[in-house]
Every structure is written in structure tokens, then in C-alpha cells.
Specification:
The chain has 131 residues and is mainly alpha-helical. The protein has four helices and no strands.
Length: 131
């Protein structure tokens, strides 16, 4: 199961880097290429959403089927430690899922706004040229 989390981590990191590159001022020369690349990658990155839902269901299933060690005297110390590690991993993975979904939403929104801004700038230039 670790491979799924690595893939999701890389996808979230790629989304974060693309959002960062699109929002950094001063990259005017690269902006058109970045916009084209990002727009072409939005559809493949949409697969992150069902993948995150699948991993979220996996976390829920593990939570429901894990043995309960509510007090330290109900389990052995190793079982209690394993239970605590499992809870911490589930919380970390849930944060990774949330980050991947938020970064996808940000990437989509920022790309849409940048494309709209480019279209409006072109329209202003055409209106200035007509006058």
C-alpha cells in the first residue's frame, strides 16, 4: 500500500509546484508555456480525485476493522504501540489526501483565472488597436 501514497505525494507535489510557478510574478516569458502545460495536465490530474476517494475508503475500512486498544491494560504494549502508529499513519494519510485535493482545486482555479486574464488582456489590446 505504500506505493499508492508515494504516487499521491508526487502528484500533490507536482500540483503545488505548478501552482507556485503560475503565481510567481516575473515569469512573463514562460507563462504561456506554463499555461499550456498546465491546461494539458489538468485532465490527467483529475484522476487524483477518485484515487483520493479510494484511499479515503481504505483508511475508513482500516479504521473500522482495526482492533480496539482504548486502554493500555486491554492490549499488550506492542499491540498498543502498533495501534497508536496505525492511528498516526491514518491521520498523516488523511492530510495527504486533503492536500492533494486542495492543490488540484487551486491548480484548476488559478489556471482558469490566468487563462481568463490572458483573454481579457488580448481583448483590451484589440480595443486599443481599434481606436
Amino acid at each position: 500500500m505504500a506505493l499508492e501514497w508515494v504516487v499521491l505525494g508526487y502528484a500533490a507535489a507536482a500540483e503545488a509546484i505548478m501552482v507556485l510557478l503560475l503565481t510567481i510574478p516575473g515569469l512573463v516569458g514562460l507563462r504561456k508555456g506554463l499555461i499550456a502545460v498546465t491546461r494539458n495536465l489538468l485532465k490527467p490530474f483529475l484522476s487524483v480525485v477518485p484515487f483520493c476517494l479510494f484511499l479515503l475508503m481504505d483508511i475508513y475500512w482500516k479504521y473500522e476493522t482495526r482492533p480496539s486498544c482504548e486502554s493500555s491494560d486491554a492490549c499488550t504494549p506492542t499491540e498498543f504501540l502498533r495501534h497508536q502508529k496505525s492511528i498516526m499513519k491514518s491521520q498523516r494519510n488523511a492530510l495527504l489526501i486533503a492536500a492533494a485535493l486542495v492543490f488540484y482545486w487551486l491548480l484548476y482555479s488559478v489556471t482558469h483565472l490566468v487563462v481568463r486574464l490572458e483573454q481579457l488582456n488580448q481583448r483590451v489590446e484589440r480595443l486599443k488597436n481599434q481606436d
